From TrEMBL:
Keyword Cell membrane: yes
Species this chain originates from: Limosilactobacillus urinaemulieris
Places the protein is found: Cell membrane
Uppermost EC category: transferase
Residues involved in a 1,2-diacyl-sn-glycero-3-phospho-(1'-sn-glycerol) binding: R140
Protein name per Swiss-Prot or TrEMBL: Phosphatidylglycerol--prolipoprotein diacylglyceryl transferase
Amino acid sequence: MINLSLPLLALNPIAFNLGPIQVHWYGIIIATGVVLALILSVHEGQRRGINEDYFYDYLLWALPIAVICARFYYVIFQWGYYSQHPAEIIAIWDGGIAIYGAILGGILTLYFFCRARRISMWTMMDVISPALIMAQGIGRWGNFMNQEAFGAITSRAALISQHIPMWIINQMDIGNHYRVPTFLYESLWDLSGFVLLMLLRHRHHLFKRGEVFLTYVMWYSAGRFFIEGMRTDSLMIGNTLRVSQMLSLIFFIVALITLIVRRRRANLPWYVNQ
């Protein structure tokens, strides 16, 4: 019988090898989130009368652009390191992509895509938002496998007292110190947001067009603001300003003001009727 009170070895971030190619769990988990998000978006898009081919076409553009933007965002704020190690700039399989960079890249791509296809960007964002936050919640487990996105030093006893499963606690032994599993907190927050949006999205006269997306932005930004404050591996400007906290605050305020202003438009269609 295994004694769960004793520390175990950390999980291997490499899932398997294909000859000389190492396949990382990080990539598998991210890809799983993307595929599930696509399936969910296509299903909801059909309910809204959106051609499913639009989602496949959008993904073909958005996925590489989002990955590039996510990596670019991360590298820029870690330029002190990457300027000395330029060969590692493309090593995204070792982690080091920023979700806000991916989101900004995805939204920018969606803007031009919707203009080209002459469809409502607000409607597309409403359809995609619940799937996106679900994918974000899943993607945090890639950070778990890479032992990143963690918080301050804590004790094994403190983690056990939170009723965290032992296999997660063992993976939080990083550099001979147990760490607060902020990846887990954010994953649970994101998945809770997914459930909330899915339960409320089709409630009669609850959301107007664009408000599912704006609610997603506020929910994610609020959770990220507080969870980011617990992390010790945050991207920083100087020694005190956490980039993601700053952006979370800005996004929350902008989304809230936008929601209030748009609500005053009497001709704005309800989500269930659009």
